[in-house]
Specification:
With 311 residues, the protein is α+β, with helices and mostly antiparallel strands. It has 9 helices and 9 strands. The protein has 2 domains: 138 residues, FdhE-like fold, CATH 3.90.1670.10; 149 residues, Alpha-Beta Complex (FdhE-like fold). Helix content is 36%, strand content 12%. Strands 1, 2, 3, 4, 5, 6, 7, 8 and 9 form a 9-stranded mixed beta sheet that branches. A hairpin with a 5-residue loop joins strand 7 and strand 8. It is globular. The chain binds zinc ion (2 copies). The site of one zinc ion (ZN) has 8 residues, from loops. Keywords: Cytoplasm.
Length: 311
Amino acid sequence: MSNEDQQLEPGQIEPPAGEIRFLFLAERDLFARRAERFRLLASGHSLADYLGFLALLADAQQEALDRFPSLPPPTPEEQSLCREHGMPLLAARSWRRNPAWREGLALILRRMAGAEVPAAAREAAAGLLATAECRLDDLADKILAGDQAAVPPPELPFVAAALQAYWVHMATALGEHAFARLEAGGVCPVCGSAPASGIVHANGSKQGLRYLSCSLCATQWHMVRLKCSSCEATEGIGYYSLEGTNGAVKAESCPDCNAYLKLLYLEKDGRMEATADDLATLALDMLMAEAGKVRGGPNLFLHPGGEVEEA
Ligand SMILES: [Zn+2]
Ligand SMILES: [Zn+2]
């Protein structure tokens, strides 16, 4: 693992904040593109089976997203209350989800129970298909509250996948204009979740800008570079990458709060995707953990206590 010098000073390259589009919602083909990325990453990877499983899961998420009916948005009263208090409109922890999220889950589970995946995953999917609705909602609440550790490891990816598809559906149905900047720059302006990773863009109006990518709804929101996404400190930020790689993925690490977040540099590889490339670079997480650092945001497919088996 190598530590590299900071590459720019705050404000040195970036245009004034007023000229920067602060938010991009996920596209409606997010999961199809993610599945494609997982497949590409799986080839020749030591975690090939795991990444292949996640590709099939992303296919199922896309199908669930495509089939969601239109659902009632937050009421005008809820919307103005959120604006007034600077709260995210589709807050993961407090906004009441529509029971339709479980229909998305059921579709994902039916696909995965019949897919060519490890027997343990098929059994977990079949088990969840027969699980009472109140327990499914309880599992969802735990994930949305950031307590992934309380969910049995084989069940976590399925429930997390359904919640992602549902939140992308609701966010894209409302549209970008419904969401406003929050005071806390490190959480998603749509749902209040922490980012899974950050992306430094390479093209167009976003060139050189860093956007954080939501672990739940995949919204990208702007945050200046050289700033810790967890505590917003700007001093002493360090960058770490795996030796022998081209530096397309670096961990941005904060000495103040000890958190790190991966940054994907699209100029090095424009095909990278926030969730998929995060999971394909778990070796970097292991090195950061050995150095006593903790992730600044979750990847919902990663069980905090779980091991990922190498092929
Ligand atoms: Zn979000
Ligand atoms: Zn920090």
